[in-house]
Design goal:
The chain has a seven-stranded mixed beta sheet with strand order 3-2-1-4-5-7-6, with helices on one face. The longest helix has 15 residues. 41% of the residues lie in helices and 20% in strands. Helix 5 links the parallel strand 2 and strand 3. By secondary structure, the chain is an alpha/beta fold. Bound molecules: S-adenosylmethionine. The site of S-adenosylmethionine has 24 residues, from helix 2, helix 4 and strand 2. InterPro entries: FAM173A/B, KsgA/Erm, SAM-dependent_MTases_sf. This is Class I SAM-dependent methyltransferase.
Length: 169
């Protein structure tokens, strides 16, 4: 009986947020989490400290955002799917409010306050974001992408063909 109730609740949650899963798919990328090894490499590549302000674009369950917060950096996790925003806010309670989780379309956000950005979104959305990120972020800021690349800018460095690092000049 308990298994059935549990299963029913899961189905209900999926159904309630179905629209947002579909929306995320068409707006840029479905949910597909980065693996732990890649996350470690992305974070190391950013060389963060307590003064760093990082935006995690399309944050999903917040795994990158929470991992970044361990470096002492300030993290804003931006996610379009309210299910994941809720999940991050709940996780945040246990992490003593280490991150700021907001529900927004990454295309509508202002990036001028950040000196680092992490991103794991499809190339179509990366292209749409490229100009805003490179014009709004200050010189010397770092953008680290899992796998996918921008169209107009060359990476400063690529690690194992997966971690693509850009510097704003
Ligand atoms: C490939 S997953 C990456 C999740 C997480 N960043 C990671 O690496 O584990 C992409 C995430 O971006 C979100 N997303 C897709 N389009 C978006 C948009 N336009 N604005 C904000 N989030 C978006 C999806 O809901 C999904 O959670």
């Amino acid at each position: 009986m308990i298994t059935q109730i549990f299963f029913f609740v899961i189905v209900l949650i999926y159904a309630a947020f179905a629209f947002y899963w579909v929306q995320a798919f068409f707006k840029g990328a479905p949910y597909y989490p980065s693996n732990k090894k890649i996350v470690k490499k992305m974070i190391k590549a950013m060389e963060l400290d307590g003064k760093s302000k990082v935006a995690e674009l399309g944050a999903g369950d917040g795994r990158i955002a929470f991992a970044i917060s361990k470096t002492g950096a300030h993290v804003t996790a931006i996610e379009i799917n309210p299910f994941f925003v809720l999940l991050m806010k709940l996780k945040n309670i246990f992490h003593k409010n280490k991150i700021k989780a907001i529900r927004a379309n990454v295309l509508d956000h202002d990036y001028s306050q950040y000196n680092a950005v992490t991103i794991y979104l499809y190339p179509g959305l990366m292209h749409q974001l490229e100009d805003s990120l490179f014009t709004q972020m200050k010189k010397g800021s770092v953008i680290v992408s899992n796998t996918f690349r921008f169209k107009k800018h060359e990476p400063e460095r690529v690690i194992e063909n997966r971690v693509v690092i850009y510097r704003v000049n």
